[in-house]
Specification:
The complex is a heterodimer of chains A (310) and B (297).
Chain A lengths: L1 H43 L13 H4 L6 H8 L1 H34 L3 H12 L6 H12 L4 H8 L14 H26 L3 H9 L4 H25 L7 H7 L5 H4 L2 H11 L3 H29 L6
Helix pairs in contact in A: 4-8, 4-10, 5-8, 6-11, 8-10, 10-14, 13-14
Chain B lengths: L1 H37 L3 H5 L13 H7 L2 H32 L9 H13 L4 H10 L7 H4 L6 H12 L3 H9 L4 H12 L1 H17 L2 H6 L8 H17 L4 H10 L2 H33 L4
Helix pairs in contact in B: 1-15, 3-15, 4-8, 4-11, 4-13, 9-10, 11-15
Classes of the chains: A mainly alpha (310), B mainly alpha (297).
Chain lengths: 310, 297
């Protein structure tokens, strides 16, 4: 009797587990359907990178051409130019944003007036939440030939400069305006890192007569190092994302030489010039490199720290 | 000796405060400049006389903007789109995060689902294949083309999943003993415990869809269906087209002068107001969001 009782209890438990699991599957269903339609089916569409795709014939009717579009892509001088631009812009943004965010976090940590601290935080986080469509209007307003910056330069007796139409100034402009938008938001993790440093270390340093510089150099920075390294490693995965929204809203044909990046090139070739297959091939090249970087970075951070992205 | 130290400390303090205030001002002044321009007379703005205070104060740009039908049509499309996106995102995030927060023993298919989701996060079909799917579904030029492709924000699902995994098991067990099914457990136990993380992902969703102009750029071809950001962007592009057409610098300068700079400033201010309205909530929750985001799966 006792045995039977135990047996029946076990079956109800496993029965409940099973009904629970089918409920779980049901809950996953709507989301997975969306992923199927808008993520996985487009992945099938990648075959068009290996075809001479025409909309009339469709994916199943268009002739296969092997690696034609990839060979063509790497034979173009354009591709090396846009890869170089993408890397320069993306890496420049990462380095300077990280530097500014770390400096800002260290300085802000010294502020003892709470009202000022809060106000400055509120202000520097704000640009992160604004669209590049909006911010580009502001940037154009400031840096165009008749903008405020050129007017100030003129008054000070300097030569005026068309920052948005000049190949030597366009990349620095992209990098610095992005730093302006993002350094505040990027500083949040570094502020959190500073707050978690043991105050005892500072006390010990003060007793030893360490100056502010010495405390910053020997206590604060080493305390932030793990977070700085982790964020930098995670940034590597984004090295091919130079920021479509920003570039698209600021560039013009005069600065394609230094401002054109992979994403804007894919957009122009695909949707404006209707070279569907070629555009998809360039996009695929970027996706594959991006994925490899992402997996590599994830493995590396799993190995060297206890944090990982996925 | 002691005095020289305190003097250098004082100088250091002044330097730090100055730098911090400078950094704050650098972020704030361009925005104040636009605000001042939106309240200034057209001539003063064109002549670049406006700094941080309106010159020839006027409400004319805003009055003119009130009469711009397309601006308000696009504004409403963006509002509708944010609401639809928010509702869809939240339902799907919560429904997926709950089962995925279970262990492999409780939910055997979990590993497969996770692999499928992470693959979809790392790799995508690219612009053209996605465009063709949206087109084939007949969604072009509808608000659904702006909403449905981003229905599942995978990163946010993982964020909420991690949070759910930290909810004490005893709460759930008590509810199950009371006879609750998983959906009831989710609604009555998990959701009330998870307000901060849900607020974070909700705000991510709102900011993301309000600011997005790219979907409108590729999926919407009729001006009357454009969401606000794409509409504003399309006004900027007209000048770029002139450059492409080989217009001379003089023509460009005159076009820039004719194009109402103070009206554009008013457009920028009005389209930013919804974000400013939720900014206090953003500040409250996004910091926790970033910290949660750093948690490993």
């Amino acid at each position: 009797m006792k045995f039977l009782h135990k047996h029946s209890q076990e079956t109800t438990v496993s029965g409940r587990m099973q009904s629970q699991e089918s409920m779980f599957n049901l809950m996953m269903l709507p989301g997975m359907l969306f992923l199927l339609i808008f993520s996985y089916i487009p992945m099938v569409g990648i075959v068009m990178a290996f075809q001479d795709f025409s909309a009339g014939k469709g994916i199943f009717g268009s002739p296969f051409v092997g690696l034609k579009h990839f060979k063509y892509m790497f034979s173009l001088p354009d591709i090396w130019k846009i890869i170089r631009n993408t890397l320069t812009i993306a890496i420049g943004k990462m380095l300077i944003t990280t530097l500014m965010a770390v400096i800002f976090a260290i300085l802000l940590n010294e502020i003892r007036v709470r009202f000022l601290k809060r106000t400055v935080q509120t202000v520097v986080y704000l640009p992160h939440f604004l669209s590049w469509v909006i911010l580009a209007s502001i940037v154009v307003n400031l840096f165009s030939l008749d903008g405020s910056v050129n007017q100030a330069l003129g008054k000070l007796g300097f030569e005026q400069c068309n920052f948005l139409g000049n190949n030597t100034t366009f990349q620095p402009l992209l990098i610095l305006t992005d730093v302006w938008k993002e350094f505040g938001y990027a500083s949040i993790v570094y502020l959190a890192a500073i707050t978690s440093i043991d105050p005892g270390l500072y006390e010990a340093a003060s007793i030893d007569g360490a100056s502010w510089w010495q405390r910053t150099w020997h206590v604060t920075l080493p305390g932030m190092l793990t977070v700085i390294l982790l964020m930098s490693v995670m940034n590597i995965a984004n090295v091919l994302n130079a920021g479509f929204d920003q570039v698209y809203n600021l560039y013009n044909p005069m600065v394609y030489e230094t401002g054109d990046i992979i994403d804007t090139y894919v957009y122009r070739m695909g949707l404006l010039n209707h070279q569907y297959s070629f555009s998809t091939a360039v996009g695929l090249f970027k996706s594959v490199v991006g994925m490899v970087l992402m997996i590599g970075v994830n493995e590396a951070s799993k190995k060297f720290t206890d944090a990982r992205i996925f | 000796m002691i005095q020289s130290k305190s003097i250098s400390a004082r100088v250091g303090k002044v330097v730090v405060y100055t730098l911090i205030i400078l950094m704050g001002l650098i972020c704030l002044l361009p925005l104040l400049n636009i605000l001042a321009m939106s309240f200034s007379g057209s001539a003063a703005v064109t002549a670049n006389q406006v700094g941080l205070v309106p010159v020839d104060f006027t409400l004319a740009p805003y009055q003119k903007l009130l009469g711009d039908e397309q601006f308000w049509r696009s504004f409403m499309i963006s509002v509708v789109r944010v609401i639809l996106q928010l509702a869809l995102n939240m339902v799907l995030i919560v429904l997926m995060a709950y089962p995925l927060s279970k262990s492999k023993r409780e939910f055997r298919a979990r590993g497969v689902y996770m692999k499928l989701m992470i693959f979809a996060m790392l790799f995508n079909g690219g612009m053209i294949p996605t465009y063709l799917v949206v087109k084939r579904l007949g969604l072009l030029n509808t608000v659904w083309s702006l909403v449905l492709p981003g229905a599942v924000p995978i990163f946010n699902v993982i964020l909420v999943m991690n949070f759910f995994a930290g909810v004490p098991k005893s709460l759930e067990e008590a509810a199950i003993i009371d006879g609750a099914n998983p959906l009831q457990v989710l609604m009555r136990v998990y959701l009330p415990c998870s307000v901060p993380v849900l607020a974070t992902v909700a705000l991510f969703s709102i900011v993301g869809s309000w600011n997005d102009f790219f979907s409108g750029l590729i999926y919407i071809t009729k001006v009357q269906n454009l969401p606000l950001m794409t509409y504003i962007q399309s006004l900027n592009v007209n000048i770029a087209d002139l450059v492409k057409g080989g217009a001379s610098a003089d023509t460009l300068a005159s076009v820039a002068a004719i194009s109402n700079k103070n009206l554009n400033a008013a457009k920028i201010i009005v389209s930013t107001i919804p974000l400013l309205a939720i900014y206090p909530f953003l500040q409250k929750y996004f910091i926790s969001g970033i910290v949660v985001g750093a948690v490993k799966e």
